[in-house]
Amino acid sequence: MTRVALLAALAFLAGSAPNAVSPSAQRAEKVQGAAQPGPRSQPALLFHDRLRKLVLLDGTYSAVRPEHSEIWIWDGRAWALIPSTGPTGRYASAAVYDSRRDRIVSFSGRVGRDERITPDTWEWDGQSWTEMRDTSAGARDHHMMAYDAARGRTVMYGGGPFPRRPGPWATDTWEWDGTAWRQVGTSGPLGRVATMVYDAARRQVVMFGGVGAPVGDRREQPNYGDTWSWDGASWRKLSDAGPSPRDRHAMAFDSRAGVVLLYGGETRSQQFDDMWKWDGRRWSRIALTGATPGKRSLHAMAYDPVRDRTVLFGGNNDGRVVSDTWEWDGRRWTRAN
């Protein structure tokens, strides 16, 4: 695709004609040829209702290189870069799409080479970013967020508070309504870095697994294999059975099948290439045939209801940070780029 054609496509997606290519877009064109996102781990991937496409943002290549700050769109055939200016590129952050207000909400994370952690909340309306005023949820990284569509709230749980403190990690739960953060819970799962997603079939946020804070003289970090739900009022443990304990896995809710999908993850000694589904009562392992994304952690995954595909991007593949895109059609994985 030529640069002129790319800008025209982005103008259509964003709903206004671009005046100039942002510095982040220029860097992406120079480094990546504006063809697709570069290798990265811990990015955010989410479906945007109005654009009817998937949006990718944030992530990092390594501890010694700056974070990515571009916004990319996936339409099922190709990636397109949207020129934008907004929050500084970050990782170990979290972002969701608020379908009621048609906004992407991004909160906190690690920023810059010094990896400072900021308490900022940003919203993207499809054309521009706006920094919100409320910083009451505090600075943190490796927190989890999911959008509760039934209640119109962004739910945020735990993470690592800043500055670092010895002892267990945070177990607080907050909700964002578009104007302010409100703390709605202080107890629930043990403090951890995990993954959570909104289960629209059962109208609850589901969390699985994770890794806890270092404990003991050897500073070992425990992995968890439990499943929890948040209903807007309290956390409830749903199961101790299912995938083996792990963290850095990815989950997405398949609205056509009505199940939560989970792929990959890792522990300190093992990286996984298995896939599971949660039907609200139990986990079942999915038998995979043919090509797969392989061993994977720190990747992103989201469901595209327009095309009935679950899309997986990037992450760490057996020791390498990658930029491949895969799609799951309910039966098999296909590499899409």
Detailed description of the structure:
The chain is mostly beta strands. It has a single domain, classed as Neuraminidase. Helices cover 7% and strands 40% of the residues. It has a four-stranded antiparallel β-sheet with strand order 1-2-3-4, with helices on one face. It is globular, with a radius of gyration of 19 Å. The protein starts with a helix and ends with a strand. The N terminus is likely disordered.
Q: Ends: how far apart?
A: 15 Å
Largest sheet: 4 strands, antiparallel
For the record, the CATH architecture stands as: 6 Propeller
Radius of gyration: 19 Å
Q: Oligomerization state of this entry?
A: single chain
Helices and strands, with pairings:
Blueprint: H1 3-14, H2 23-32, E1 44-48, E2 53-57, E3 71-74, E4 79-82, E5 90-91, E6 94-98, E7 103-107, E8 110-111, E9 116-117, E10 121-124, E11 129-131, E12 140-141, E13 144-148, E14 153-157, E15 160-161, E16 173-176, E17 181-185, E18 193-199, E19 204-211, E20 223-230, E21 235-239, E22 250-254, E23 259-263, E24 275-278, E25 283-285, E26 300-304, E27 309-317, E28 320-328, E29 333-335
Antiparallel strand pairs: 1-2, 2-3, 3-4, 5-8, 6-7, 7-10, 8-9, 10-11, 12-15, 13-14, 14-16, 16-17, 18-19, 19-20, 20-21, 22-23, 23-24, 24-25, 26-27, 27-28, 28-29
